[in-house]
Amino acid sequence: MCGIVGIVKRHGKVVRDLINALKKLEYRGYDSAGIAILSDGEIYVTKGVGTIDKVIDPTKDIKDGSVGIGHTRWATHGEVSEENAHPHVSCNREVAVVHNGTLDGFNAIRNQLMNRGHVFSSETDTEVIAHLIEEKLNEIRDPVKAFSRAVYELKGSYAIASIIKGHNLILLARNKSPLVIGIGNGENYCASDVAALLHKTNRFIFLKDGEIALITPDSVDVWSLNDGIMEKVNRRVEIVDWSPQLLDKGNYEYFMLKEIYEQPYILKKLAKSVYYYKRFSDQLLKYSERGGISIVAAGTSYHAGLIGKFLLSKLAGARSEVIIASEFPEWSSHIGKDDVILAISQSGETADVLEAVRIAKSKEAKVLAITNVPGSTLTRLSDENVFIQAGPEVGVAATKTFLAQVAVLHILSSLISQERTLQIKEELLDISDSLESSMRYIDSASRKISSLLMDKEHVFFLGRGINYPTALEGALKLKEISYIHAEGYPAGEYKHGPLALIEENVPSIVLIPIDDKIRKKIIYNIMEICSRGAFAITIQPKDIDVPSDFSLPLDVKSELTSPMLYVVPLQLIAYYTATSLGRNPDKPRNLAKSVTVE
Ligand code: G6P
């Protein structure tokens, strides 16, 4: 994972800007951080273990200058330590690099470099890049040529930013890890994603795999690197219309809470742009008539994908399957040129999703993508893509983007079925109004429920039909941010195993269907667990009588759209359980928002 950033200015200093940009990238990893600055002709590095605020204090005596690079780390090679934190420098301190990705076979390069006298000070794969560039600079003093020769020897995934003593420039390379260039006035930037730079610019150049770039305060040059030969390419400047305010917590204590509260407004926005999705839904229909639809996603997006499968079947009569992205290589032998892959990814950068897409493309399948982040790798790899229009999501646990993905899948299935096109618009507006007016009530009821979970070891989430994936999502939210063991289950399947774990006071959160027939079945399930001492909490349609120890009634109008309502208390229950236990929901331990390693 990791986040990288670089800034080069004609006038002025870069440290404060680097810190601001790095903080926006902390969701990518936050076990260590660092910056390298070129000042008075020397490279100065400040780095250490912990968050950016802990490691870099701009009020202390830190060297500043007009060019610098920075990094926030999520460890892959080498333990979390000051030595392994980025940036890494070459032996003669002429070169500093930051890197996101993993290099294949880096040990072999490292051994060769050590045999040639290089001394390494970390266990990381990244450090080989700095030493390689130093060697190439000894062969040829032109920094771009030396850099490209070093990059040519690298295999694996990388987004690299490097500074070189004596030069007011940053060198960049990208392969399978995200890297964008931001365009300023008398200054230019690079970062792992646009969100890091929105406070500086909304003009971006998106690098492609296999490209290298040189940025100076007044220029950006991009080359593709084919068999070591550099070919100049022209890259269009694209405008990103996200406002920097969306990256501000405002009065909320955490981004997660702010993002949960944004949900009614996102639904409203989506309701107003139903026809933006028409071309995409036409493509989905066209390709699905030829072959099958395989939905591919990870984490929360996978749960949205399961709901998508349900909706495609129910509303559009379309057959589809859902494959967890990391399992795709093993489970996709049947996919061929007549099939379509529907890749769902908030970030558009999840390595497992991108790998699945590359495999599908190699089999000539079509790739349609649903994502949130403009310019992300998935948008470049896919044949068609649409955005879920949720704005940047900072909290590591996905909330508003899940709701937006589900809403977009509703829109697509409704557009395919045609009859429901107008209805879905009304339904989204209705859920948006209902959420907006009941948010405070849902908040306080969820807070009460969280107080019942705080001291528990296990919590179960049960649902049926379209709310089985919602139950999975509720369990994922709780475990990822509160660290309480949680399992989501289809309520009917529960008696085939997990029931053995039920004992006195184990809480089960049950999502009650509006549909009578399914509701009857789930009531039996509740009775089964309660007779074994479980504590049943129901999230349910109002004015319906269901056996439970604590109920949260909501204004649910239809079974099919109920996940968009039910998921909100589940998010808030996870949020309040985590915060009451003193855990930071925006930065859960060991997790990162964008997982760019397989
Ligand atoms: C990580 C995040 C999850 C997210 C998953 C898939 O694990 O912590 O919140 O659901 O990646 O991310 P994507 O960007 O592909 O939707």
What do these coordinates show?
There is one protein chain. This protein is of the alpha/beta class. It has 17 helices and 25 strands. The chain has 3 domains: 3-245, Glutamine Phosphoribosylpyrophosphate, subunit 1, domain 1, CATH 3.60.20; 249-419, Rossmann fold (3-Layer(aba) Sandwich); 437-588, Glucose-6-phosphate isomerase like protein, domain 1 (Rossmann fold, 3-Layer(aba) Sandwich). The termini are close together. The chain is globular, with a radius of gyration of 25 Å. It binds 6-O-phosphono-alpha-D-glucopyranose. 6-O-phosphono-alpha-D-glucopyranose binds next to α9. The site of 6-O-phosphono-alpha-D-glucopyranose has 16 residues, from α9.
Give a short synopsis of this structure.
The chain is built from 17 helices and 25 strands.
Q: Which hetero ligands occur in this complex?
A: 6-O-phosphono-alpha-D-glucopyranose
Helix and strand composition category: alpha/beta
Helix content: 25-40%
Oligomeric description of these chains: single chain
* Strand order, largest beta sheet: 3-2-4-1-10-9-11-15
Strand content: 15-25%
